[in-house]
Design brief:
The protein contains 3 helices and no strands. It is mostly helical. It has one domain. Helix 1 runs antiparallel to helix 2 and helix 2 packs across helix 3. The longest helix has 64 residues. The chain is rod-shaped. The relative contact order is 0.05.
């Protein structure tokens, strides 16, 4: 592709090339933002589905465990032990929320949106 340059008015040519460059950078920004938003949205949907399915699985497993422990300690005490286990998990999650929740989310978002290979 051969381009002819107008040597009569270099400012007009510079303006035209600058305008093309800005339009291309705008299109590139839009494409990259759509791609990264799609990755973020699909990751969020996957995590939500995984949490829902794991919660359902955990719910049925804990009922199974409660009924397995019933002959040993009684049904009421087995449900109490399982509730204590969940309370312990909540306390651990609360104490280590920065390490277990906040830092991985920040790391994922920074890797997604602040890629070092991107140029301005």
């Amino acid at each position: 592709m051969q381009e002819s340059y107008n040597t009569n008015n270099p400012y007009k040519e510079l303006f035209s090339e600058t305008k093309k460059y800005i339009e291309l950078q705008t299109k590139l920004f839009k494409l990259e933002s759509v791609e990264k938003s799609g990755i973020l949205l699909s990751t969020l949907i996957f995590l939500m589905l995984a949490v829902v399915f794991c919660a359902g699985l955990g719910f049925y497993l804990m009922f199974t465990l409660a009924y397995l422990l019933e002959p040993v300690m009684g049904l009421m005490w087995s449900f109490l032990v399982i509730s204590g286990f969940y309370l312990l998990l909540i306390i651990i999650l609360f104490l280590f929320k920065k390490k277990l929740i906040i830092n991985p989310i920040i790391r994922f978002l920074s890797q997604l949106f602040l890629n070092e290979n991107d140029t301005l």
